[in-house]
């Protein structure tokens, strides 16, 4: 029961510093607190379940997704919308058409067209008792058509309630009407004068509703909706807001095996809305794609026809010159012709003529682009190449110039929006110009190589006479023009074939359908678990924070480990109205604990002097309220009952207590004796215990410390040692005053009271250091007010025998639930 004092010689400073230091976190006590507060966790779990159920049923907005797959052919001649680095960005190196189409589907221009064409800025929903549900336009029995010439208030819910027949009541919010209204023509806001809230009004289908902030009419849905709604809530949005909302919900992916197959998905709060949007979006894209292709192919055919006509004239003129030389100069049968060199030269010059023709087409594309005459653009095939980067830049430029013309009607030339769109135009120009420069460089490099090869071949022809060389030059010129003519005819035939057989290169494989797909979000199960887990963590965190911030002594093992001071005993909770537990309840467990302390005191004082005088036991604590006086009274009582003449001294002069429980008059006490007012016989009072006397504190003096440290007090104690076997001193708490430290010099044993869940850990630092520095000797701890429901006393004698009829408390004892379960399990396994 009493650990040995650490008396190792030459203790290092770090070893001394560890005394009185407690662990920051007591895991054992933390677990006990969690188990003790189990009902909070059950309550939070229940509340979390209720909240998650209400959320999932009334507040969670299901998110749906529909898909559409299509195939893209590779014979495009149109200009699309991705920028010059789109292949790099999207990682589609071998599928330029697919990348263009992806950019188109995500482009602002395409989605803005759909928003305006389909009135997607009009949003429909319906509201139940609690939850609002988004519905598709086709699910509403009526459509709302706005007057786009009238200013409208957006993000302002308009509730339409059926009133029978073709009538609907228009109900507007009680507040929220704005003077900043939106114009669907200019796509901007305008301010109007303040106005009163528009009154609710019943209107019929096709009847216009007019108010300062709204103008619309209702149209009947020609199809019967599949669902029935009690009300329709319509909210208008701006074009820009609607476009951004739509683009953010579109996803485009390519098939991993076949790169020309594209899978488009659309997310939304209503499945029908996503299905209808995808099908309409792709249908409009097919139309636009085909129209763009036809315009370009027709422009190309017309351009090539003009070139063919011009080349035909040159070809006829060259043929006339050649025939003249044959007939007049008789040069058609040149001897020793080097046919090999001539054929090589003709082939090289034919290739050169074809490249020159492509450069001419390239010049036409460049000039058209610089003139911003996009409607006259010809196909890049006419210039002998297909470049997705260039096509993307052209289309981007076309869209940007159109947007700039619209913005110029609203914004000033030096405004930030105009500067931003000019920056985008410059970027697109740089992209298109860069692509063209690459082809110019490529073609001129090829011409230079051909000229070098022709020059080398001409060396073999220098030996011919001048007339013959003249004929050969004419023949080569004719061949060159003829090659250009044939090349143009071939490209023209290709362009005409495309015009005749042109179809959209977008083929829908699987259209979007409403197949009753389950929602893709939100993850209600995960949210439920998150809500319940979060609420479960609340009591856990509160307990954890409380445990970290709690600095009270709650663990006997930790107390002994940190202080290394012997433990004399553990005292349970005092349920009596007074402090006389040993006298009034001698068979209680608390009384038995005091008897154990009485026995332990022998070990604490076994090395003290044996001079025939009484033993002085001083009882102190850190602060008031820790049970110092209670321990003093009952320890004196249990020693007095053991037939030892004992006196209890109330030397806590600042806060007298003892007299009340013993029903003694405190008119005269130790303070009176120490000031010389009365004699010793006048302050000693007898009690019901024959061997126990009490000397109370007396009136509170103005100088208690001086009185306690006076020679008269030391002499007083020495005189009492001659008359009594034991002197129990109820001294002041050492955490408040230093009186007790001085009195300890004259005591044979010192008891320091630590109260469970009351004494602060840091208060034990000083007494522990003094003990291990041997400034205080014969010191022992008493752990007071320990609660039996928290354990079995850690083996220190308290609580032993509970439930076995040994103590008075056993008549009202009820085993804890965990103990019942343990005993039941042991009984089952012990059966044979």
How would you describe this protein?
There is one protein chain. With 832 residues, the chain is α/β, with parallel strands linked by helices. The chain has three domains: 72-286, no CATH class; 288-505, no CATH class; 556-792, P-loop containing nucleotide triphosphate hydrolases (Rossmann fold), CATH 3.40.50. The chain has 24 helices and 23 strands. The strands form five sheets. It has an eight-stranded mixed β-sheet, sandwiched between helices. Strand 10 and strand 11 form a beta hairpin. Helix 9 crosses helix 12 and helix 10 (388-407) packs antiparallel against helix 11 (416-458). The chain is elongated and about 170 Å long. The chain starts with 12 loop residues before the first helix and ends with a helix. Residues 80-94 and 790-806 have low confidence and may be disordered.
What keyword list fits this structure?
832 residues, alpha/beta, Rossmann fold, 3 domains, six-stranded antiparallel β-sheet, elongated
What's this model, at a glance?
With 832 residues, this protein is α/β, with parallel strands linked by helices.
Low-confidence stretches: 80-94, 790-806
What is the count of structural domains? 3
State the helicity in percent bands: 40-55%
- The number of distinct helices, counting runs of at least 4 residues, comes to 24
Mass-distribution shape? elongated
| Lateral strand order in the biggest sheet | 16-23-22-17-21-18-20-19
What separation lies between the terminal Cα atoms? 38 Å
Reconstruct the topology from this structure.
Blueprint (H helix, E strand, L loop, with lengths): L12 H5 L9 H10 L1 H22 L4 E9 L13 H5 L5 H11 L1 H11 L3 E6 L4 E4 L6 E5 L11 E5 L4 E5 L8 E4 L4 E4 L9 E4 L3 E4 L2 E7 L11 E5 L2 H9 L2 E5 L6 E8 L2 H58 L10 H32 L17 H20 L8 H43 L7 H36 L4 E5 L13 H26 L6 H8 L3 E6 L8 H4 L4 H16 L10 E7 L6 H13 L5 E5 L7 H5 L7 H5 L9 E3 L5 E4 L8 H5 L2 H13 L2 E5 L8 H5 L5 E7 L8 H9 L6 E8 L30 H14 L2
Parallel strand pairs: 16-23, 17-21, 17-22, 18-20, 18-21, 22-23
Antiparallel strand pairs: 1-14, 1-15, 2-3, 2-12, 4-11, 5-6, 5-12, 6-9, 7-8, 10-11, 13-14, 19-20
Helix pairs in contact: 2-13, 3-13, 6-7, 8-12, 9-11, 9-12, 10-11, 16-17
């Amino acid at each position: 029961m009493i650990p040995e004092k650490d008396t190792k010689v030459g203790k290092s400073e770090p070893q001394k510093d560890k005394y009185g230091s407690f662990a920051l976190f007591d895991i054992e006590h933390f677990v006990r607190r969690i188990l003790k507060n189990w009902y909070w966790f059950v309550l939070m779990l229940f509340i979390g379940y209720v909240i998650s159920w209400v959320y999932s049923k009334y507040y969670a907005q299901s998110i749906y997704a529909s898909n559409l797959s299509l195939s893209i052919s590779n014979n495009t001649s149109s200009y699309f919308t991705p920028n010059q680095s789109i292949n790099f960005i999207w990682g589609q190196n071998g599928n330029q058409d697919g990348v263009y189409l992806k950019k188109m589907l995500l482009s602002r221009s395409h989605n803005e067209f759909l928003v305006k064409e389909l009135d997607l800025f009009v949003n429909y929903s319906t509201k139940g008792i609690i939850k609002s549900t988004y519905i598709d336009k086709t699910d509403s029995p009526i459509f709302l058509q706005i007057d786009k010439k009238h200013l409208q208030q957006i993000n302002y819910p308009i509730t339409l309630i059926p009133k029978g027949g073709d009538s609907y009541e228009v109900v507007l919010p009680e507040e929220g009407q704005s003077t900043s209204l939106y114009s669907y023509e200019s796509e901007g806001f305008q301010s109007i004068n303040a106005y009163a809230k528009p009154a609710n009004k019943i209107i019929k289908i096709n009847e216009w509703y007019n108010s300062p902030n709204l103008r619309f009419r209702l149209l009947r849905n020609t199809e019967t909706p599949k669902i029935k709604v009690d009300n329709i809530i319509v909210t208008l949005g701006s074009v820009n807001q609607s476009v951004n909302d739509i683009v953010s919900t579109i996803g485009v992916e390519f098939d991993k095996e076949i790169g020309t197959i594209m899978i488009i998905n659309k997310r939304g709060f209503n499945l029908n809305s996503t299905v209808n949007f995808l099908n309409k979006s792709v249908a409009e894209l097919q139309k636009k794609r085909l129209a763009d292709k036809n315009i370009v192919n027709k422009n190309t055919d017309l351009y090539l026809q003009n070139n063919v006509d011009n080349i035909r004239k040159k070809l006829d003129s060259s043929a006339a010159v050649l025939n003249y030389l044959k007939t007049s100069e008789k040069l058609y049968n040149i001897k020793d012709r080097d046919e090999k060199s001539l054929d090589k030269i003709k082939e090289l010059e034919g290739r050169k003529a074809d490249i020159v023709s492509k450069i001419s087409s390239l010049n036409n594309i460049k000039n058209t682009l610089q003139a911003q005459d996009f409607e006259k653009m010809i196909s890049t095939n006419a210039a002998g190449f297909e470049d997705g980067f260039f096509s993307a830049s052209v289309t981007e430029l076309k869209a940007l110039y159109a947007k700039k013309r619209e913005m110029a009607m609203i914004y000033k030339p030096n405004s930030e929006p105009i500067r931003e769109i000019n920056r985008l135009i410059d970027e697109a120009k740089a992209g298109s110009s860069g692509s063209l420069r690459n082809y110019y460089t490529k073609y001129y490099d090829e011409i230079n190589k051909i000229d070098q090869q022709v020059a080398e071949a001409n060396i073999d022809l220098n030996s011919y006479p001048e007339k013959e060389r003249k004929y050969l030059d004419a023949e080569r010129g004719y061949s060159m023009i003829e090659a250009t003519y044939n090349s143009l005819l071939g490209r023209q035939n290709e362009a005409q074939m495309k015009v005749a057989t042109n179809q959209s290169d977008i083929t829908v494989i699987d259209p979007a359908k409403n197949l009753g797909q389950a929602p893709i979000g939100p993850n209600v199960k995960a949210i439920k678990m998150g809500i319940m887990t979060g609420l479960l963590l609340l009591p856990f965190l509160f307990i954890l924070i409380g445990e970290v911030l709690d600095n009270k002594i709650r663990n006997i093992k930790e107390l002994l480990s940190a202080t290394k001071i012997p433990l004399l005993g553990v005292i349970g909770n005092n349920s009596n109205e007074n402090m006389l537990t040993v006298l009034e309840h001698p068979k209680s467990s608390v009384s038995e604990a005091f008897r154990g302390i009485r026995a332990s005191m022998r070990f604490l004082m076994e090395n003290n002097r044996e001079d025939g005088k009484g033993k002085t036991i001083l009882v102190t604590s850190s602060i008031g309220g820790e049970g110092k006086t209670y321990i003093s009274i009952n320890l004196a009582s249990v020693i007095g009952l053991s037939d030892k003449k004992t006196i209890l001294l109330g030397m806590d002069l600042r806060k007298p207590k003892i007299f009340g429980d013993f029903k003694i008059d405190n008119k005269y006490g130790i303070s009176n004796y120490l000031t010389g007012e009365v004699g010793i016989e006048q302050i000693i009072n007898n009690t019901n215990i024959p061997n126990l006397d009490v000397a109370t504190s007396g009136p509170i003096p103005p100088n208690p410390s001086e009185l306690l440290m006076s020679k008269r007090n030391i002499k007083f104690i020495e005189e009492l040692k001659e008359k009594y076997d034991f002197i129990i001193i109820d001294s002041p708490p050492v955490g408040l005053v230093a009186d007790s430290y001085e009195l300890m010099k004259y005591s044979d044993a010192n008891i320091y009271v630590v109260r469970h869940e009351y004494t602060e850990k840091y208060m034990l630092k000083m007494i522990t250091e003094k003990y291990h520095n041997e400034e205080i000797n014969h010191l022992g701890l008493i752990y007071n007010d320990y609660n039996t429901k928290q354990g079995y006393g850690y083996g220190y004698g308290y609580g032993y025998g509970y439930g076995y009829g040994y103590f008075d408390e056993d008549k009202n004892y009820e085993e804890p639930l965990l103990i019942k379960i343990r005993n039941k399990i042991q009984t089952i396994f012990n059966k044979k």
